[in-house]
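Worked example 2:
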Amino acid sequence: MHRTMAGTYSQIYIQVVFAVKGRESLIRKEWKEDLHRYIAGIIKQKGQKPIIVNGMQDHVHVFLGLRPSMAISDLVREIKNNSSNFINSQKLVKGKFYWQEGYGAFSYAHSQIDQVYQYILNQEQHHKKRSFREEYCELLKRFEIEHEDRFLFDWLE
């Protein structure tokens, strides 16, 4: 008798945070939404679920639903490669645009979706109170992620 495998069902919610190389403030208001839409499109095209993409001039927050068949590192590499190509091909910055190496990835429960969505939606308000560095270090601390400051982003102070 032939038996079929049971279906795989999952709800994995990840917030990914990454920065412009050198933490330069290169993402401009005029094309920020286009970039965020483009990033959401990459996520969809990879068969994943974009929930919200937003950020500031020097970094981006991506909140998404991830299927277990997709490695986070592969998806982030696709997002960074394709979005930097988009920025460069559209000549949105002088010279060449690069994302910084590395990223933060943080997982959330289904009950936290709205809270994380609102947090990412209201980035401008949050950064009136604290810097990206403070925000990022707070995430690492809250998620109890061991790290050495020297291996974080190249901070522009």
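The chain has a mean pLDDT of 89. The beta strands are 12-19, 49-55, 59-66, 104-108.
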